[in-house]
Design a protein that fits this description.
The protein has about 350 residues and is α/β, with parallel strands linked by helices. The protein has two domains: about 180 residues, Medium-chain alcohol dehydrogenases, catalytic domain (Quinone Oxidoreductase, Chain A, domain 1), CATH 3.90.180.10; about 150 residues, NAD(P)-binding Rossmann-like Domain (Rossmann fold). Helix 7 runs parallel beside helix 8. About 45% of the residues are buried.
Length: about 350
């Protein structure tokens, strides 16, 4: 089969002929129909993000495809089923604290690297081998719509945070990093889940206006100044009442002061979910007042990716019409132009735009 291979950080992808994947018990082979190219893929491939990925590797992070073959332990998957290939692979020998790797993308730690040695290659290829539980059926879709369904790869990340936060219908959510790709998707998902109001802080006024245009008055934009105290008060005053939950999705380039300004807007008994990349490139830690957390009974939780059942639940939101994938525009590239796709994704790193490789 043909695949795009990353042989060294800082090098171009090489489109080569590689052996077809072979499945064993507990594994599925999927024909890749569409694979999203994340906007920061160039930063991963250059080594700038310092992700744990053993090279050479076929990269990528998730895909939409059709089942080509299944192992003898599969009881419901059938040949030809449309599936989302979930890149979040968990070890099976410790259900309490499983090691995790993002197949074709990054490991979380040393245990994840060991897992990555086997579930190694990602979806920038004609086929991919995934654990059986990572081939999630999404129902019958049109072949031409497969690229649109790649939006799930972006939507799933904030959805995992919102599930961890146990966001309830009618609640007020603040999305820290709302003008970014994951943050803007969080706005869309939260409203689809019944969020009563989403406070959207950011410095990109054009994108703030765009969020209101797309989703209406339930989105309350807040233009940030960079002054922590001023911004915190502006965010607190933006909603119709107290802020029930804060979801942080700020990128590595942001400061811990920006995270703290948003976090400390949450009401007593409120929840804070940390999913962003702040601190991954070094710098000071997140300095939160112990008395504020304790006396206000604040729940602060880290969340990496999403729970195993999130994909089916998110697909149901799409299937019911509550979450509209047509919000996303798509630019497609054939596999042979994988490097052009990576460059395009970086140059067009804007919300509600997908760059997709169609092997």
């Amino acid at each position: 089969m043909k695949a795009a291979v990353l042989r060294a950080f800082g090098s171009k992808l090489s489109v080569e002929t590689v052996p077809d994947p072979v499945s064993g018990t507990g594994e599925v082979i999927v024909d890749v129909v569409a694979a999203p190219v994340l906007p920061y893929a160039s930063e991963v491939f250059s080594g700038e993000r310092k992700y744990l990925l053993k090279l050479p590797a076929v990269p990528g992070c998730g895909a939409i495809g059709r089942v080509r073959s299944v192992g003898p332990d599969a009881t419901q998957l059938a040949l030809g089923d449309w599936v989302l290939c979930d890149p979040t692979v968990r070890s099976r020998d410790n259900a309490l604290t499983p090691d995790i790797t993002l197949q074709g993308w990054s490991a979380r730690d040393g245990g994840g690297l060991r897992l990555q040695e086997y579930f190694h290659d990602g979806p920038f290829a004609e086929q991919i081998r995934v654990p059986t539980e990572n081939a999630i059926r999404i129902g019958s879709i049109n072949f031409n719509d497969a690229s649109q369904w790649c939006a799930l790869a972006t939507l799933l990340v904030p959805y995992g945070g919102l599930l961890a936060a146990e966001l309830q219908a009618g609640e007020t959510l603040l999305v820290s990093g709302a003008t970014g790709n994951f943050g803007s998707s969080a706005v869309a998902v939260a409203l689809a889940m019944g969020g009563g109001c989403v406070i959207a802080p950011g410095r990109n006024e054009a994108m703030l206006d765009e969020l209101v245009r797309r989703f209406g008055p339930r989105v309350r934009p807040v233009k940030l100044t960079g002054d922590e105290a001023v911004d915190r008060e502006r965010m607190r005053q933006a909603g119709p009442g107290p802020i029930d939950c804060v979801l942080d999705l700020l990128p590595p380039s942001s400061t811990t002061t920006a995270v703290r300004a948003a976090m400390m807007t949450v009401r007593p008994y409120g929840r804070v979910i940390l999913m962003g990349g702040v601190g991954m490139l070094g710098g000071p830690g997140l300095d939160l007042p112990y008395p504020w957390i304790m006396r206000n009974l604040i729940t602060v939780r880290g969340q990496w990716m999403y729970s195993p059942n999130a994909i089916s639940r998110l697909a149901s939101l799409v299937g019911s019409g509550l979450l509209d994938l047509s919000q996303f525009s798509v630019t497609e590239f054939p596999l042979r132009d994988a490097n052009d796709a990576v460059a395009h994704a970086a140059a067009n790193a804007r919300p509600f735009h997908l760059t997709v490789i169609r092997p």
